[in-house]
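Hi R.,

Here's the chain you asked about this morning:
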Amino acid sequence: MTYPLSNEQLERMAPAIFAETPWDEVSERYVFVPTSAVVEMLRQEGFEPVRAMQSRTRIEGKQGFTKHLLRFRHRDMLERSLTPDDLGTLIPEIVVTNSHDRGSAFKVDLGIFRLVCTNGMVVGDHLCPPVSIRHSGRPDDVIDAAFEVIEHAPAALDAAREMRALALTPGEQAAFATAARELRWPTEEAATARVEPESLLRPRRWDDKGNDLWNVLNRAQENILKGGVKVRGADGKPRRAAAVNSVDGDRKLNKALWTLAEEMRRIKAA
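And the predicted structure, written out as tokens:
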């Protein structure tokens, strides 16, 4: 996620980006807007794709059209030489979601990339409402939405800095981790897997050991999305949690965790 991806790399990660027609079961009212056209237009505006993922399907013939997500970063941030002091750098990103099977309109969100751990956040709706664009045949609308959300980047970066300046007590960290766990493994599910909150607070690197809200958020986000934490299933047997690899799971959990951190920040400031 620190270098631009070529079309060949994008196609390996998310072939639906390059669909030339919609899935054959969409209605006649569906206007096809290829994601590849949006990729090229964002490149022309100086934004390069740095990550791509795509949802899986068991429906035969549908894999080339399913929901996909791309993250874009301005070329200036990719071409500059980074030093060890930049490892904590926060970089704004444009997050675009689409599908060619009527499963999703174009959605454009603001993302924040943390260089030290290659974590990619998605900013919550309260700070930066997502922009949804119907398939109307105008890729320009997606480009306009991208510039609309990137205008919120200074406010999002300020919010992250405020989180970094806000120390949490051990009890507050545990409360945050418990709430974060429920986002990924809701207790109301009969066969839910159980994860101890402290496992979500465990740092994976020295730089994440702080007790501030920003570090706590990043540790919980990485442990939840990248998996590997210890889980005890409904049968009582231990195992390791799987990574979140779905487009919907990645986007929704990222936004929910950011919103949770914003709520913790609001409570602490009251």
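The longest helix spans residues 247-269.

Let me know if you need anything else.
M.
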